[in-house]
């Protein structure tokens, strides 16, 4: 983790040790221990500890959900320049809370701050906002730029989005081969929509060699992952396969994805 490396350079050893112990506790699901370690650090101004406490209050990890306290701690982290704090505060502003409507303008500002610091999930969200054109003015080139940045850091949903951009000639020329390549990367990264689009491309032979068995396998994964994009293709692809091919596709779909 880059933030932990920076912390090691900038902070005293007890702070580093406490942050590492808290992280290990959180990974075990022991958020109460993690919170006990983060609290004195947060009160002393360690921004990542402030973020972590805010995230716990936002999601109810080790404490009851308290969005007011979540915002308080996340705002401290964001103001200190912590990109994860900025991203998490942005996500809080996107939520529809009792008595408060989402603040999309503030959310987009915070996502951009985090994205420019290299936070890949924030880059992914900013890309989505710029492509949708509902929260921010549509900017296909900006959407592509931030998706490429996030994809380079392994964000599968941005890989799928890049496939869509190449498929629909948004912010770039239409290139079915590039679209299929990005969809495969997104699919192998676990993105259900990427799996659905790769399955469709394999069925149609669009940018990739036609292979209905592989197509059905990816579509089954996509359906299992909750992608509605798979639904229109599944009956057609199933009808094109023999019972043996269907069984093979189902076997493949049940296998764990290989780590990238």
Helix content: over 70%
Q: Return the CATH class of the largest domain.
A: Mainly Alpha
Give the topology string: H per helix, E per strand. HHHHHHHHHHHHHHH
Number of strand segments: 0
- Domain count: the total is 2
Distance between the termini: 18 Å
Question: Quaternary status of these chains?
Answer: single chain
Tell me the major beta sheet: none
Helix count equals 15
Describe this protein's structure:
By secondary structure, this protein is mainly α. It has 2 domains: 1-117, Serine Threonine Protein Phosphatase 5, Tetratricopeptide repeat; 155-255, Tetratricopeptide repeat domain (Serine Threonine Protein Phosphatase 5, Tetratricopeptide repeat, Alpha Horseshoe), CATH 1.25.40. Helix content is 71%, strand content 0%. It is built from 15 helices and no strands. It has helices at residues 2-10, 13-27, 31-43, 47-59, 67-79, 83-94, 104-116, 120-132, 140-152, 156-168, 176-188, 192-204, 212-224, 234-239, 243-254. Helix 6 (83-94) packs antiparallel against helix 7 (104-116), helix 8 packs antiparallel against helix 9 (140-152) and helix 11 (176-188) packs across helix 12 (192-204). It is globular, with a radius of gyration of 21 Å.
